[in-house]
Amino acid sequence: MVNYSSVKRFTLDNGVTVVHERNPVSRAFTIGVWTRSGGRDERVSDEGLCHFLEHMLFKGTPSRSAFDISLEIERVGGSLDAFTSKDTMCVYAQVLESQRHLAIDLISDMLMNSTFADDLVEVERRVVLEEIGEVDDAPDDLVHELFAAAVFPDHPLGRPILGNKKSVAGFTRADLKRFRKRVFRGSNLVVAVYGNISESELRKVCTERFAFDPGDLRRGTTRLRNGGKPVRRMVRRKLHQQHVCIGSRTFSYHEARRFPLMVLTTLLGGGMSSRLFQRIREDMGLSYNVFTYADHSRDSGLMATYLAVKPSNAPRAIDAVMGEFRAVSNGSLTRKELDDVKEHIKGRILLGLESSSARMMRLARSEMNYGRQIGEKELLRNINGVTLDDVLHVAHDVLDVERQSIVSLGPGTRSAR
User: Fold this and answer.
1) Which one has a higher pLDDT value, 108 or 154?
2) How far apart are CA 18 and CA 27, in angstroms?
């Protein structure tokens, strides 16, 4: 395991935080630049602008066309990618250690010098509108957006990251330049690096290449409303299946209860041996795909179980899910199940850290979420420390059937909830 005391952290004069894990024997070098803000920090009129900016960063600078950006990274066998979430945006590159300066230079050029040419804004607008259309045509994706909107009404956590067709249709080059200036400020940025580079060299190139204006992002505050009251919503659409999400609000990533919740979600729907997979698919034959997940943000979170079933079977499937919720809340979890689930989680975490990009991402998320590095030993210790009582207490909070929101997308039936 990595000794996280060997992870280096320093802050540039402009406020940019740099975290670095050096591996002198790895051929891989991965660098990511992260914002401490994401889709949830957009203004109401800017819905989807963070994601649109992410797209436009790849469309050219004064010294590189969009094709040049792609060619330079790919001809050395590297990769360049980005993503936007509700809490962050990240642009990252993975290359051979010998190409580390190319990766740093490319990302710096994209973030600081993208031109946002008017003609390319129009082209990419069509691309993003198609992306929104793809989600609308994919009920197994759309139902999760509908569920978040139901659980977090009138709150940024309930808004789609892609924005909507109306907002995207209105974005201009001036909007992109304004938003870049607002978001790419020193204290709002984290540079995470995994690979073989000395601290002195990294400090030098980061100072030169990430010379963003100092300052922080000014965020508004939006209170969570309605106290997490359950919502039952049917969205009718001509589909062959009924796509259903069942769940409730949970905890932020700051709360220690996220570890018992991790055990709980894995127990219920974290794999083929999970209770809901065995019950809904293997025993009852009602659904091909059923799983449970939890998402955490800085002030809240949600837990949801997803399944897709024949519309006439939806009430029966929902009753079966609620039955498992009741069983766990009533103490049916055994010590053997608990131990098995914890071993599953630990194995999944450790296997997930076998890539350089995963290690880079863990560095960044630890810094942004906790202000320090959460080492593997500490993480495994927290999982090992989860008790039956811990899981039972969390289950009482989040599995109360009277508190479950249910969002259903499909043709519905008269008997569907």
Assistant:
1) 108
2) 21
**What's the mean pLDDT when you consider all of the chain?**
94
Residue 196 CB-half CA count within 13 A: 11
- Which pTM was predicted? 0.93
Q: Are 196 and 22 in contact (CB under 8 A)?
A: yes
Q: Do 74 and 22 belong to one domain? A: yes
Q: What is the mean pLDDT of residues 52-72?
A: 98
Q: Is there a single domain that holds both residue 183 and residue 320?
A: no
Q: Which residue reads 């690096």 in tokens?
A: 193
Query: Which candidate, 345, 255, 270, places its Cα nearest to that of 300?
Result: 255
Q: What is the CATH number of the domain that holds 156?
A: 3.30.830.10
From the candidates 42, 47, 54, 145, give the one annotated as an active-site residue. Answer: 54
Within 13 Å and on the Cβ side, how many CA atoms surround 47? 15
Q: How many CA atoms lie within 13 A of 26 on its CB side?
A: 19
Q: Terminus-to-terminus CA distance in the chain, angstroms?
A: 49
Shared domain check, 169 and 41: yes
* Catalytic residue flag (residue 54): yes
Residue with tokens 């984290």: 190
